[in-house]
Amino acid sequence: MLVNSKFSDVVDDILKEINLDGKFALDATCGRGNDSLKLIQNLGSNGFLYACDIQEEAINSTENLLCSKGYQNYRLYKISHEYVFERIEEKLDFIIYNLGYLPKSDKSIFTKAESTIISLREAINKISKEGIIVVVSYLGHQGSTEEREKLSKFLKNLDQKKYKVEKIEFFNQVNNPPIVYKIGVI
After folding, report:
1. Looking at the predicted structure, is the pLDDT value of residue 23 above 70?
2. Residue 179 CA from chain centroid, whole number
3. Does the pLDDT at position 1 exceed 70?
4. What are the helix (H) ranges across the chain?
5. Where do the structural domains in the chain lie, given as residue ranges?
6. What is d(CA 129, CA 81) in angstroms, rounded to the nearest whole number?
7. Does domain 7-29+43-100 have CATH number 3.10.25.10?
8. How far apart are CA 105 and CA 120, in angstroms?
9. In whole angstroms, what is the distance from residue 19 CA to residue 12 CA?
10. Taking the CB of residue 40, how many other CB atoms lie within 10 A of it?
11. pTM (whole model) above 0.85
């Protein structure tokens, strides 16, 4: 389809564009594990997935999903995405962030602008030469407008000689649709 109807289709299209077989990826906000599952399927048996979240419920949900599918080539961390890069030695080929809160959970626990920007500063230093960083930004939770504004400012100010940033939004949708940012290294 030339025009996607939801943000997850955008992420799926990005994953189709790149070859992650045998490479390293990070789900920086693993939530219910859906992106982790998509990533690990694309990594194949020789690739490796790292994933993190601050909530035990998210880690357990992701663990259960990946285990139920028979995957073993992953490591989960119950920490904020701002600290996860201290635990990863390899350069990463794909990093994804889904900002906001854990679906069907406590909405008072959510990503925050400060930790997201700190994490993205680390991510752009950890991404491989042909790597991609995807950030899905939602509105509607406490602090989400500030987070999106700071995220947008941070990404807009990345050196254009080193990074290319695409902003994909559902321009005519109501109710604050998510924006997908795609960051590539030149």
Report:
1. yes
2. 12
3. no
4. 7-17, 34-43, 56-68, 113-126, 144-156
5. 7-29+43-100, 142-170
6. 21
7. no
8. 25
9. 13
10. 25
11. yes
